[in-house]
Amino acid sequence: MRIACIGGGPAGLYLAILMKKADPSHDITVYERNRPDDTFGWGVVFSDATLGNFQLADPESYEEITRSFHHWDDCDVFFKGRKITSGGHGYCGIGRQRLLNILQARAAALGVKQVFEAEIADDADPRLADADLIVAADGVNSLVRKKYAGHFQPDIDVRKCRYIWLGTHLKLNAFTFITEPSEWGWFQVHAYQFDRDTSTFIVECREETWLAAGLDKLDQAGSIAFCEKLFEKHLQGNKLMSNARHLRGSAWLNFNRVLCRKWYHKNIVLIGDAAHTAHFSIGSGTKLAMEDAIALGKTLTANPGNVEHALALYQEEREIEALKLQSSARNRMEWFENVARYAHLEPEQFAYTLLTGSQRIGHENLRLRDQAYVDSVETWFAQQSGLPARPLPPMFTPFRLRGLTLKNRVVVSPMAMYSCRDGLPADFLLVHLGSRALGGAGLVMTEMTCVSPEARITPGCAGLWNEEQAQGWQRIVDFVHGNSDAKIGLQLGHAGPKGSTQVGWESIDEPLTTGNWPLLAASAIAYGPQNQVPKAMTRADMDSVREQFVAAARRGAAAGFDLLELHCAHGYLLSSFLCPLTNRRTDEYGGTLENRLRYPLEVFSAVRAAWPADKPLTVRISAHDWAPGGNTPEDAVAMARAFKAAGADMIDVSSGQTTREAQPVYGRMYQTPFSDRIRNEVGIATIAVGNIFEADHVNSIVAAGRADLCAIARPHLADPAWTLHAAAQINYNEAAWPKQYLTGKSQLERNLARAAQLAIRA
After folding, report:
1. Residue 572 falls in the annotated catalytic set
2. Quick one: which of 4, 64, 195, 240 could link to 102 by a disulfide (CB 3.0–4.6 Å)?
3. Range of 8's domain?
């Protein structure tokens, strides 16, 4: 096979090495536009796990790499005059030029042809005419990808920060993050040592900060002088230097986030930055590129004579890993882009949220790396929660809101059970909510409880529009208070355009086959093609529904609920006002977000006045409609500010379900970034929801200040005692079990200890 690689970076060289090693008869040429001793950038970072992959793929180059790298275990975070150190991370740095020289030498030894100072614009170059496979390893600005953009369908996002990639002879014994204020805004540094006397020193700031500081008007020397002055105390007398000889214009760059929908076309394949990029804050761009080469080499070798099939298998294997890593890199990148959001945090929490910002590293992973560091975080967090100074899992610290104190940070999320008749909460809900209160959660929430018969989602939904229902709820509240130390919250809502539908285990969100009732909404827009068209609410309708909410709130207070939540999410009535896709009104309740908020705020204010002053009132919102033209996370911040100003104590941050056009991007803790943003920009307590299913998730989210509480839904359906079992799994034996279940507690703890010992022996 004749293989032509466009681009002599790590991706192209490593593929050439692996293919030539697999079959010496392959005719492989690597075309590189630069000289062999000329590259942009300084160091490259690999984790210990990545090096293990290289060892298996090509032991010879691995040995050379390991002889040349600088290894470290610590991460140092400098903030507000403090240095916070976390150990056990296991990374190494190697000079980019040194890595290229190693791969160039290895490729040459195997018989790979290398042509330097060779500009290859695209696959039409005559030097590629008889190639069986063309490998586009031509980087983030790939000309091959650009030529076939209609086929590769790249999603290219030019990010909002500027960075300059510098070097220094400052010797660092840790991966170093420095965050410094200036009169123009925040600057941050990503720095690490990669050989005996040189370190990478990347300086980054927001675009508006860059402009305000006049850096757009400075040449490379001027920018270096600016950075030397700003970070003078950290550089300890060392100078900064650049090797950006080929850059035109400013030495400051924007990071381009790239992901292609298709990675191959005919006999052309994209690898490395041509196919996808990962932000340098996670240090994974070169890792991704070289692991692409490993996967592509395997599929080509396993499928001789069928290049297209091999390329399809390559993309199938790699795109999931690339998506996962890019998702983590995006989280970390956005954290650095918005570092001012976290400037109010104390150094302990600032460092922790930085280290866990990608959501790939969690609380228990940090504990494995550095027990002492995690103990210090837990001790600090316990003190902030009003407890004595000792290590304590963050999820088991108390939380206070108005006159309410929750024993821990776990919430049983509102979950529709569709098990009421005429809205009456009877035995099923008594057992359902009562068992979860016994299961250790700090707060148990009712399902959306409807304020009128017409406010129901389905005929099986719970209600609070009459005294019989109020008595049914008081029975449940009394059981929770009398048999557990959990608190119980009431969620009030009105289904609006999503009402009069079948129960969840039938045809969810589809209308009843018979017995439908009339619907109300902000506008006469049906939720789906089969759903009933609701009536656009008149002023009289608004007044009537508002008073229904008030009456239900009063009944809830009389029943003894500890907390009240107003449901303004998921496309229900109040959400239909907030979402621009479902609110097409032309009066003062439609148009701008300020107008769309008007009626939900009217209802909220009326409910706040009716609800006891010493009890919290929270609001659930959809922070992202996940649909073109819908609300965005920026809109969610504005909504949260408005509800806070009206007296809300906390925002329950969900997303989606406002329109059938929604296309959410799912994943672990996928909605937590919305909670993080609202909590830290608006300055209001939040509840995080959405695919949170491990104690590690809760500990990480709460300790990092991304939310104050975590709502767990489906795991509580599978395990009513989820919180107690989570406590046992993380060796926290102070969780209060019901005295009737104490023998089960001791057996569970013994079984878990025995399983841990067996795992160690294995």
Report:
1. yes
2. 64
3. 2-337
